[in-house]
UniProtKB/TrEMBL annotation:
UniProt protein name: Glycoside hydrolase
Signal peptide (UniProt feature, chain positions): 1-18
Classification via InterPro entries: DUF4015, GH
GO molecular function: hydrolase activity
Keyword Nucleotide-binding: no
Protein source organism: Paenibacillus residui
Top-level taxonomy: Bacteria, Bacillati, Bacillota, Bacilli, Bacillales
SUPFAM superfamilies per UniProt: (Trans)glycosidases
Organism domain of life: Bacteria
Alphabetical UniProt keywords: Hydrolase, Signal
Domain DUF4015: 61-377
Length: 388
């Protein structure tokens, strides 16, 4: 009994350091909970979860590239936020190629030689955002990292001939290995610097293996252990939140929209529930253009934004319901672009964006993020409660 009590006190010390409001009684009660009959114990499930920023307003934001944040387009985007009910910006701190987009002054990161100073003065940017009452979110692209993969191939995936694997896109992209603890710590170091700079939330994107990885897993060379791909990816998310929560920043993750509607995507290592239970915010990319024929009964989901977003919202609620108090804030990415490559697509403007927002609202979801890769957003949109 004394050994059990000592172990409990040690665990309480670890938990309470990251969650000061947790009591020993709460920990004891949590430790006595056992999985329901037929359920397996989930080592990735946190004991406690508390929003580090409970007073944050309802977030409605836009995506902002580092080039926009560090250039003249920022003024246009600030004007949009100032004149509407938008109040947040998701800014690339580590972009889709793996560039750290401003000079952190961190010697650990400088040793990787992956900084490309796109944002000339991070403190000036943060001061400007604060003046305009913009909630700043740092976007960090995690495992899609062509730059680090080229500099450190041993942290990536190698073809049978020893060359670096890349996908078939133009230009080709490479990923780094989600099993690698060094890769984990590298990205979390970037996140800690973003928190130090003043970002209030860290949003991790590309938290997965490459698409179609299960088809090439057996021929690629890379370091791995006994964990499944799902466990490796969810393990990173859990570790990241444990590292960042004491800094007072929220942790969020972007995830494929269809992940809420299907079983775990084991090929790429994404499990909607296992990731969601370890984040403060989950941002599914529910762009109607990303769904194929038949989803939610729509022949062309892109042409039926209300139907598609409503269907994905219902599935999201169903998927997250079992998490109970561990359920994160639901803040999807929605579409503010026209998907010209989709047969039967429609042009997206004020009406189509408002239909997506109305679908979220009708399903009890008040938060959202708008995506447009070029950061050109539709004017005149009612972002609060658009009429049918």
């Amino acid at each position: 009994m004394e050994m059990i009590l000592a172990a409990m006190l040690m665990l309480w010390g670890n938990v309470s350091s990251a969650n000061p409001d947790v009591t020993l009684d709460q920990l004891v009660q949590a430790s006595m909970q056992v999985p329901a009959h037929g359920e397996e114990f989930d080592p990735l499930r946190p004991v406690f979860k508390k929003d580090p920023q409970p007073d944050t307003p309802t977030i409605r934001g836009i995506y902002v590239t580092a080039h926009s944040a560090g250039g003249s387009r920022l003024n246009t985007l600030l004007e949009l936020v100032d004149q509407t009910d938008l109040n947040a910006m998701v800014i690339d701190v580590k972009d889709d190629w793996g560039n750290i987009t401003y000079d952190t002054g961190n010697s650990k990161l400088e040793a990787y030689d992956t900084t490309y100073k796109i944002i000339p003065d991070i403190q000036k940017l943060m001061n400007t955002l604060n003046e305009h009452e913009v909630y700043p979110i740092a976007r960090i692209v995690v495992f899609k990292d062509t730059i680090l993969a080229n500099k450190r191939p041993e942290l990536s995936f190698l073809n049978p001939d020893g060359s670096l694997w890349a996908n078939g896109k133009k230009p080709p992209e490479s990923f780094v290995n989600p099993y690698s603890k060094e890769v984990w710590d590298y990205n979390i170091e970037v996140a800690k610097e973003a928190a130090k700079a003043g970002f209030k939330e860290i949003q991790f994107d590309y938290v997965r293996f490459p698409e179609g990885f299960e088809k090439r897993d057996s021929i690629l060379q890379y370091e791995q252990d006994e964990r499944s791909r799902v466990e490796a990816v969810a393990g990173f998310v859990k570790y990241a939140r444990e590292q960042l929560n004491p800094l007072g920043v929220r942790v969020s993750v972007d995830i494929f929209g269809y992940a809420a509607s299907v079983p775990a995507a084991e090929g790429i290592g994404q499990d909607f529930e296992k990731i969601s239970q370890n984040v403060d915010v989950i941002s599914a990319m529910v762009y109607p253009s990303h769904y194929t024929t038949g989803w939610f009964g729509a022949k062309v989901p892109d042409a039926e934004p209300y139907t598609t977003i409503s269907g994905s919202s219902v599935d999201t609620h169903k998927k997250l319901e079992p998490l109970g108090p561990l359920k994160p804030i639901v803040r999807p990415w929605i579409q503010d672009f026209t998907a010209t490559w989709i047969p039967g697509h429609i042009k997206y403007g004020k009406k189509e964006i408002e239909e997506q927002i109305r679908a979220l609202h009708d399903n009890g979801i008040e938060e959202f993020l708008l995506w447009n890769a070029s950061n050109k957003y539709t004017p005149g949109v009612n972002y609060i409660n658009p009429s049918p």
